[in-house]
Design brief:
By secondary structure, the chain is of the alpha/beta class. Among the domains are: about 140 residues, Rossmann fold (3-Layer(aba) Sandwich), CATH 3.40.50.360; about 110 residues, Elongation Factor Tu (Ef-tu), domain 3, CATH 2.40.30; about 140 residues, 3-Layer(aba) Sandwich (Rossmann fold), CATH 3.40.50. It is built from 23 helices and 24 strands. α7 crosses α10.
């Protein structure tokens, strides 16, 4: 069973009861805070002997002095026949008021400790604590997988509101939740009799009556050398029993003192088990440190938030679960498709491939990669494998490589298609490892490994053309991705540019509809987006969305893109034909690999043509005035200097530090951005030495040229683009 499955089912089952324990624990955390504010704490260096002397003068008949975990001093005694317990001021022994054990309703404690079910409930509460520990471990594993390892653990979290709440809250309180689970188990072990804190019996000691008067507390050397910070409880001998002794309980142990000589008659050190238990009580309840109790209360309340967001995430995943239609029985299928997918989108490509092959007369069976095998009827095998996190396999396929390594090799060709994001250093790493394993074992391949960037339907269709040619049969892969719930966007502003070759371009600004809480939790519509994310637009007459890089974020209050007319482009023609007040339907797809982190380090932005759009969005939100340097490439400043007025204003405002522009179709225009980078080689090396972050956006050819140029420029520093990518300082958004 995968870590995700463990986490999901523990959360949905034991998590429901954990909410009860978490909420009641948050309520109980109020008690230590309240106690800490009810009476002054005793100075830690105050001798116990001094306190006894002061209390004896102000509280007649005192029998016990107790030092509470809150630091307050409580004395117990009798007034006539009535028992009394009072707070006292440790400075002078003055009575401050009556002491009550706890103002918290007893049923809250019983609900927290035993679910109101007595001993059986205590076993149940211990079981929930154990389940919470397992939940914490699985949560840490999944968190590291999602974020891409320890180095990215504090990186920005993307996804629906429910996902962000779940992950961010987990990063903050996971360690404390794990600690409370461990301490609860420690306390339960003692309560349920599984561990004995002290099996010793108290010694039989009496004070030897010598005829001399009993010593006062202030005269006892043992109490003179004992500081209040170590005292837990002090029992004062009875006036009616001449053989009664003083009994002192400290953090180190307990002792009995002769009332006449002041000698320590017996001493028992605190057992190791008791010390562990005492520490567990403090860490679990916060009763000795009210600031920690506040932390525990907040963490306890967060369990409800965890559970609610987890249920929403589970429901989302359930609705998006893959359902392959038209599956032939495994034993009869001549084509097998095995899928490794973390979020489920790769199953859509498998369905597209299965449908196309089935139309060609093949019997096709699709299943998860962990079920990899061949049969006597198998003639072709295709593996569609996504990469998750920092190059890992999707959770369900985590042991697939080991499984495949144990199978006998056959002559059936196994062709691998990888899915990933080029922004990450480990682009399609799992698919590459899988392909390497298959080839090393001796499995043949019909086609070499193909790596699909950002689930590109166009690239998948191109691979389909090569597959059809190799198979020698007609095959068309028209992948129609599952489109998320869309939102209506109304055009409010446009700026048109004529372009240099008849390819008109426009910057289009749309009003952003503020989503409701439900949409934000489920990630529907445009709940939240950043500059550099992608907006998907489905044009009329097509079921396939086209993606455009965003030049704005949700904080800007609008959604802005830069669109250039493409020859025969269905979506660009539709967008450029919009008039004010016209609407489109759209959704946002996160592009976390291109996101710009909050930083004070230099930021180098390189863009050409409409590729300047997300870079403009980065500059627009540079409220901290971090050093940003833009290299912009166009053809003619009079026709395609996109965002030109905005860029000039941002320079004046300090959002942009420097600007270098080049235009390739005008005299003395400076050539291409690569030429500008070479001219500024010394400055570039200085920025990179300072830790600069680089973002490149534009055509694939332009990005390749920029990468080659930067490799040349950075060679004296023994750095390269691949090195910067490995350090997550370099990312591209290419089209």
């Amino acid at each position: 069973m995968s870590w995700k499955a463990v986490h999901r089912w523990l959360g949905l089952t034991a998590g429901t009861l954990a909410v009860v324990l978490g909420v009641t624990g948050a309520i109980l955390a109020i008690d230590p805070v309240q106690q800490a504010w009810q009476a002054p704490a005793a100075p830690g260096d105050l001798p116990v002997a001094t306190l006894v002397e002061q209390v004896s003068r102000t509280v007649p008949g005192v029998e016990e002095i107790r030092h509470l975990p809150s630091g307050a001093i409580v004395v117990f005694g009798f007034s006539g026949d009535q028992p009394q317990a009072s707070y006292v001021d440790p400075a002078d022994g003055r009575v401050l008021g009556a002491w009550q054990p706890s103002a918290m309703p007893r049923w809250v404690k019983n609900l927290h400790r035993s679910l109101l079910l007595g001993d059986a409930g205590r076993w149940g509460a211990a079981g929930i604590a154990l389940a919470m520990g397992a939940l914490c471990v699985s949560a840490l594993v999944l968190l590291l997988q999602r974020m891409g390892g320890w180095r990215r653990l504090v990186a920005r979290v993307r996804g629906s509101l429910a996902q962000r709440i779940h992950v961010v809250t987990g990063r903050v309180v996971l360690a404390v939740l794990c600690l409370t689970s461990l301490t609860a188990l420690t306390m339960s072990a003692s309560t349920l009799g599984l561990v004995a804190l002290d099996t010793r019996t108290e010694p039989e000691v009496i004070s030897e009556v010598t005829g001399k008067p009993a010593l006062r507390g202030a005269q006892l050397a043992a109490l003179q050398g004992l500081a209040m910070q170590d005292l837990r409880k002090l029992n004062i001998p009875s006036n009616t029993d001449p053989e009664d002794t003083w009994k002192v309980v400290t953090a180190q142990g307990q002792g009995w003192i002769d009332r006449y000589s002041g000698q320590m008659l017996a001493w028992q050190d605190t057992t190791f088990a008791q010390r562990v238990y005492d520490l567990a009580v403090v860490l679990h309840t916060g009763e000795a440190a009210w600031p920690w109790a506040v932390v525990l209360g907040l963490v306890g309340a967060s369990v409800l938030l965890f559970w609610l967001s987890g249920v929403v995430i589970w429901w989302q995943a359930r609705r998006q679960a893959p359902h392959i239609t038209g599956n032939a029985p495994l034993a009869q299928a001549d084509v097998l498709i095995f899928v490794a997918s973390e979020g489920g989108s790769t199953w859509g490509f498998a369905q597209t491939l299965q449908d196309a092959l089935s139309q060609g007369g093949h019997r096709v069976h699709s299943t998860a990669l962990e079920n990899f095998r061949t049969t006597a009827a198998t003639r072709q095998v295709f593996v569609l494998a996504a990469t998750y996190g920092d190059g890992q396999a999707p959770a369900h396929a985590s042991h697939a490589l080991q499984h495949i390594g144990k199978l006998p090799v056959s002559a059936v060709p196994v062709t691998v298609v990888g899915f990933g994001d080029r922004q990450y250093p480990a682009f399609c790493a799992f698919a590459k490892a899988l392909d390497q394993t298959l080839r090393t074992q001796g499995w043949p391949a019909l086609l070499p490994l193909e790596c699909i960037h950002q689930q590109s339907g166009q690239q998948f269709a191109g691979w389909g053309i090569a597959l059809a040619k190799t198979l020698g049969e007609p095959l068309v892969l028209e992948h129609v991705p599952r489109v998320p719930q869309t939102a209506a966007l109304t055009l409010t502003e446009r700026r048109d540019y004529p372009g240099t070759t008849g390819q008109a371009t426009a910057i289009l600004r749309f009003a952003w509809p503020v989503p409701g809480l439900g949409d934000r939790l489920r990630g529907h519509g445009l709940a939240r987006f950043e500059a550099g994310d992608l907006v998907g637009i489905v044009p009329p007459g097509s079921a396939v969305p086209r993606y455009y890089s965003l030049a704005s974020g949700w904080e800007d209050g609008f959604l802005e893109i830069c669109v250039r007319q493409m020859p025969g482009g269905l979506c660009s023609t539709h967008l450029l034909g919009l008039q004010m007040g016209h609407s489109i339907t759209a959704f946002v797809r996160p592009n976390p690999g291109f996101a710009l982190p909050r930083t004070r380090r230099p930021v180098l932005l390189i863009g050409a043509g409409t590729g300047v759009a997300p870079l403009a969005g980065f500059i627009r939100r540079n409220d901290r005035r971090s050093p940003m340097h833009l290299y912009f490439g166009g053809r003619d400043p009079a026709r395609d200097f996109y965002f030109g007025p905005d860029i000039q204003r941002w320079l004046i405002e300090g959002r942009l530090s420097t600007l270098q522009t080049v235009f390739s179709r005008v005299p003395n225009g400076g050539g291409y951005v690569q030429d500008a980078l070479r001219r500024d080689a010394r400055q570039l090396r200085e920025w990179v030495t300072q830790g600069a972050i680089v973002r490149v956006c534009g055509s694939r050819a332009m990005a390749q040229g920029v990468a080659e140029t930067l490799d040349e420029v950075l060679a004296p520093l023994t750095l390269s683009v691949s090195t910067l990518k490995a350090k997550e300082r370099y990312a591209e958004d290419v089209f």
